[in-house]
Design a protein that fits this description.
Elements lengths: L8 H4 L42 H6 L4 H14 L4 H12 L2 E4 L7 H12 L4 H7 L10 E5 L3 H7 L7 E5 L9 H13 L4 E5 L2 H5 L3 H15 L3 E5 L8 H13 L4 E3 L11 H18 L4 E3 L7 H14 L12 E3 L2 H14 L12
Parallel strand pairs: 1-2, 1-8, 2-3, 3-4, 4-5, 5-6, 6-7
Helix pairs in contact: 3-12, 4-14, 8-10, 10-11, 11-12, 12-13
This protein binds glyceraldehyde-3-phosphate (G3H).
Glyceraldehyde-3-phosphate binds next to β8.
Length: 359
């Protein structure tokens, strides 16, 4: 009979509470113990209250594109995780996925199936083989259009999985501000506890930082207790300096997370955008003491790809930013590849993607 592989004890283990720095060529395992931060309710940082708009800080930001691109190009080669450590990191990745469906042909049935997948992201027999069936692995959130918030809330009841809504005239965000704010309030009223909003890109392209600050601040107010993820649509902001400045303004205005993309831009999440935004988060924390989360989203479909974003988090912000309250990955199809990789780890064989349907 074929021997199945499992995770090493240290990657499974109760009591593993942080990702430990690897001294050798490999990273140490990511913790996959719920006590190490798989939970949602019990592991939240204090919210970023924002600050007054500080234009001196915003205007002083400049990004050297070629330096950032060089760093982004070397990062995946310098950091790799293999075999059982990779399986452990992929299990960790599942806990930060905002499992997303944002299609014109979404239906209540699709959304319910996606929610079932969020509750049980990996087939039970695979989790058994990996020795982690007891962990109650689930995704970070389910992310849908406002129209499906109530459906998702109902389907996820009792699971502890939050529902995130893309509100504010997603993806272009060009409807009148009062309508965008009303949409946020409606999503919160329907039970969304996380709101992903888009910004007016023209404010960034024209350097209208006060207008951007006021817009994000109004969105934060409309969210109430719901957490605000501000989508910058980085692929439409023209320069990395604009990405850095827009990140800073969004954080000053009270963003709980800054997020790269809607998934609908020509260029979505990339490592250079992630580097610039994570460095902005670090500088903001050093200056104000407030912690802001990061969410790369759009076009992240391969297990290898999500690991690269995790390396950025670990290198630029540290282990604290690898938990769901400060790190999410917005993705509609990534889970399929992660499950395939886990199956390969356990059985030595790849299965067809259609054996891991999302909906
Ligand atoms: O926020 C999430 C994105 O819209 C998902 O994009 P994706 O379909 O390319 O994974």
């Amino acid at each position: 009979m074929e021997a199945k592989r499992t995770l090493p004890k240290s990657a499974r283990g109760a009591g593993v509470t942080s990702i430990v720095d690897g001294r050798g060529p490999q990273l140490a395992p990511a913790p996959v113990d719920p006590a190490a931060g798989n939970g949602h309710a019990d592991d939240h940082v204090a919210r970023n209250p924002g600050t007054a708009l500080d234009l001196d800080v915003v205007r002083a930001l400049r990004v050297n594109r070629s330096a950032v691109e060089r760093r982004a190009a070397t990062l995946p080669a310098r950091r790799t995780v293999k075999k059982e450590w990779q399986a452990a990191w992929l299990l960790r990745a599942i806990t930060v996925i905002d499992l997303t469906t944002l299609s014109g042909d979404d239906t209540p049935g699709n959304v319910r199936r996606l929610c079932a997948k969020a509750r049980q992201p990996v087939r039970p027999e695979l989790l058994e083989s990996l020795g982690v069936a007891h962990l109650g692995l689930k995704t970070g959130a389910v992310c849908v259009y406002h129209a499906y918030v109530a459906t998702a809330v109902e389907a996820l009841r009792g699971s502890g999985i939050p529902v995130a809504a893309v509100s504010t005239g997603f993806p272009a965000g060009l409807s009148p501000l009062r309508e965008r704010l009303a949409e946020i309030r409606a999503s919160v009223a329907d039970g969304a506890t996380e709101i992903d909003t888009v910004i007016t890109r023209a404010h960034v392209l024209r350097g209208e930082w006060e207008a951007l600050y006021d817009e994000v601040k109004a969105m934060r107010e409309a969210c109430g207790d719901a957490h605000l993820k501000v989508i910058l649509a980085t692929g439409e902001l023209a320069t990395l300096t604009n990405v850095a400045r827009a990140s800073e303004v969004a954080m000053q205005a009270g963003a709980d997370f800054i997020k790269t993309s809607t998934g609908k831009e020509g260029t979505n999440a990339t490592l250079p955008y992630a580097l610039v935004m994570c460095r902005g988060i670090r500088a903001y924390q050093e200056r104000t003491g407030h912690l802001v989360g990061f969410k790369p989203a759009g076009g992240i479909r391969a297990a290898k790809g999500v690991l690269e974003f995790m390396y950025v988090m670990k290198e630029e912000l540290g282990d604290r930013w690898l938990k769901p309250d400060l790190f999410r990955v917005g993705a509609s199809a990534l889970l399929t590849d992660i499950e395939r990789q886990l199956e390969h780890f356990v059985t030595g064989r790849y299965s067809a993607a259609h054996r891991h349907p999302m909906v």
